Amino acid sequence: xxxxxxxxxxxxxxxxxxxxxxxxxxxxxxxxxxxxxxxxxxxxxxxxxxxxxxxxxxxxxxxxxxxxxxxxxxxxxxxxxxxxxxxxxxxxxxxxxxxxxxxxxxxxxxxxxxxxxxxxxxxxxxxxxxxxxxxxxxxxxxxxxxxxxxxxxxxxxxxxxxxxxxxxxxxxxxxxxxxxxxxxxxxxxxxxxxxxxxxxxxxxxxxxxxxxxxxxxxxxxxxxxxxxxxxxxxxxxxxxxxxxxxxxxxxxxxxxxxxxxxxxxxxxxxxxxxxxxxxxxxxxxxxxxxxxxxxxxxxxxxxxxxxxxxxxxxxxxxxxxxxxxxxxxxxxxxxxxxxxxxxxxxxxxxxxxxxxxxxxxxxxxxxxxxxxxxxxxxxxxxxxxxxxxxxxxxxxxxxxxxxxxxxxxxxxxxxxxxxxxxxxxxxxxxxxxxxxxxxxxxxxxxxxxxxxxxxxxxxxxxxxxxxxxxxxxxxxxxxxxxxxxxxxxxxxxxxxxxxxxxxxxxxxxxxxxxx
Length: 515
Description:
The protein contains 19 helices and 2 strands.
């Protein structure tokens, strides 16, 4: 495992001004010759000493440790906003539909417009974070996200709401890899970084658990607009916190414009194909055309990156087993988890006949434990390294998915809640060490690109899970639905067993030269 470089002890970061010398406290006693030559100077000397002491006290408040904590707090608040906005909207969709109309397709794009922009721009945003500086990109994304949230709440028509949601997704894409890059740059020691990543991940877990509850309370009490306006104070707090965090150094290299265009085109085509598959099926001409566009754009991207002098995503990144395997594991984790949530949401309502509110509450024990597991995973990773917690989390999810194979239309509620608990705990244990493994494997100036790659894989995995598992449960009757549910659980089990084996046998965090 590559050891992080030690940071200098002679300078301290200063927000907005790079580095500056740490002030040396003034002597406690004035020089004797000064006192002899001019006794009247004793008072000014005392004032100078007091000023130095006050300056030292101010410097202690804004110490590197304090500014590192501010970096983590800003990154966690940003991640909370991104995740909350992806989960809080679902509950409000019927209310939005009653006001604007637009049918099921229009309401789907309230969610999918955000997802499409988010997933398609993650890779490019990660590269921009490294090129322009993580703090600058995070601040820009946070500002735009907050303003777009206000635009969503003030939208007078459904098209205006959809446009604001796309802007939100683009801003979220800029924030996500930059937030992880900030943590990678702020925490040089592996153990401290693992705990910081656990805190960052726990913020997302809290948003997952709070999203349905916030959505229901705000929509019923203040109207659907409130689910977007809630981002305004959170965004303002995150921006205020970011001003106290150190600024990241940019990496001045030429912009790989051709690579950016090819990557965005490929990811837009793939994400659009996956979204439309859930509605039209894999054989739809629109889906087939989108998949063909993805293949062509992806091939062009690889050729461009192989030939350009300053590629957006150096293909050498994939020489690292840690980078390649974490991307695959991230895809599988989101595919299985979000595919399961989608299928079970319909199972609770269509097979068991439960209300929308009851169906949402069924997930609370699972999602609430994710946050606790995130924090526990940070401590485990700091003590034992990332491999064992990551493999253990995936294997714990396997036990839950295997148990779901026996679920029927009359399975008791308590049994269902018990079966979901290992899936929630396992998911919470897996993500922090997954992220730690990736950030250990690359240098700080590539953290944005690598984080964008992992986030992109996870977003695509979530969309694939909904499309794949949704296709398996399609059909008439509860028997067909249950067959699809059981098949989905088997697929999830097999995929997680494969990634668990890869974690234990193949994963290393050694950094290839130049990365």
